[in-house]
């Protein structure tokens, strides 16, 4: 049975709503959480990097308007992000719209070849191309490439009675500015990790007992964190907010009962 929360295995155009909860912890705490997860969860089926075969590199291109409406969460821009995601050195990339509704996340995506990204530079979307809907929305929403973000992800998964679940740990997060659609070198970019890692739970329906155990064992506090928002501030593209610490996510998901 396919674990559809493995992103690089799930090639469906639309992915159903799921809950995502993020935490930011020091490197050493992330290592301890990983040790715990590796004893209880399986490696992501598509991961092959590292001694445990549960890691892979992710590189994403992010889009925003001239006024940075996505960053400022203005209107409907606050509910959706448009990005292009690449896993490792793959020549296949994913055009993604990530939509958050009532605290749940869904994605629409299309897979295209790396070489086909040049089609997004035109102003007349090609109706017979799988990326037509994506190109059309970039134009309608006046979105342009803003930055490239790369990081190393370790992912562990399991199939429960409520469906697949996934725990990820992201580290070595770097960002570079963009002025055109295309993937480049991240060396020398702005470091966003600051000796911290981002731990994320993804699940459907109720919070799995395994994740409740992680929260209690390691005294984790959910945090509203966005790599894109961190990147544009670190790159000096926007003025940082006066209160730079984002408010934590509501704790209600932690208390969900099965």
Secondary structure layout:
Layout lengths: L13 E13 H14 L1 E2 L11 E10 L4 H4 L7 E8 L4 E10 L2 E10 L18 H9 L3 E17 L2 E15 L12 E2 L4 E8 L5 H10 L8 H8 L24
Antiparallel strand pairs: 1-6, 1-10, 2-7, 3-4, 3-7, 4-5, 5-6, 7-8, 8-9, 8-10
CATH superfamily (homologous) name? VTC, catalytic tunnel domain
In CATH terms, what is the architecture?
Alpha-Beta Barrel
Unreliable spans are 244-258
Helical residues, percent:
10-25%
Name of the level-1 CATH class: Alpha Beta
Report the end-to-end length measured between terminal Cα atoms: 23 Å
* Class from secondary-structure proportions: alpha+beta
Task: Summarize, please.
The chain is 17% helix and 37% strand. The chain is an alpha+beta fold.
Note down, in words, how this protein is organized.
- The chain is an alpha+beta fold.
- The chain is built from five helices and ten strands, in the order E-H-E-E-H-E-E-E-H-E-E-E-E-H-H.
- The chain has helices at residues 27-40, 69-72, 132-140, 209-218, 227-234; strands at residues 14-26, 42-43, 55-64, 80-87, 92-101, 104-113, 144-160, 163-177, 190-191, 196-203.
- The chain has an eight-stranded antiparallel β-barrel.
- Strand 7 (144-160) and strand 8 (163-177) form a beta hairpin.
- The longest helix is centred in the first third of the chain and has 14 residues, at 27-40.
- The chain is globular.
């Amino acid at each position: 049975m396919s674990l559809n929360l493995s992103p690089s295995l799930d090639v469906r155009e639309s992915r159903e709503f799921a809950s995502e909860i993020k935490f930011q912890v020091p490197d050493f705490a992330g290592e301890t959480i990983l040790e715990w997860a590796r004893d209880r969860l399986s490696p992501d089926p598509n991961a092959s990097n590292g001694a445990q075969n549960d890691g892979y590199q992710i590189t994403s291109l992010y889009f925003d308007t001239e006024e940075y409406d996505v960053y400022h969460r203005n209107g409907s821009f606050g509910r959706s992000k448009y990005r292009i995601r690449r896993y490792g050195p793959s020549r296949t990339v994913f055009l993604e719209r990530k939509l958050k509704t009532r605290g749940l996340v869904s994605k629409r995506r299309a897979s295209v070849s790396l070489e086909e990204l040049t089609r997004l530079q035109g102003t007349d979307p090609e109706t017979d191309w799988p990326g037509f809907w994506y190109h059309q929305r970039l134009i309608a929403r006046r979105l342009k490439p803003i930055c490239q973000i790369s990081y190393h992800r370790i992912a562990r998964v399991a199939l429960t009675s409520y469906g697949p679940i996934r725990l990820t740990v992201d580290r070595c997060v770097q960002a570079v500015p963009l002025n055109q659609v295309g993937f480049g070198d991240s060396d020398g970019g702005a470091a966003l990790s600051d000796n911290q890692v981002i731990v994320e739970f993804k699940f459907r329906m109720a919070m799995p007992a395994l994740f409740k155990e992680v929260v209690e064992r390691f005294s984790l506090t959910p945090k509203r964190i966005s790599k894109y928002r961190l990147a544009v501030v670190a790159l000096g593209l926007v003025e940082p907010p006066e209160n730079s610490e984002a408010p934590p996510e509501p704790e209600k998901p932690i208390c969900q009962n099965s």
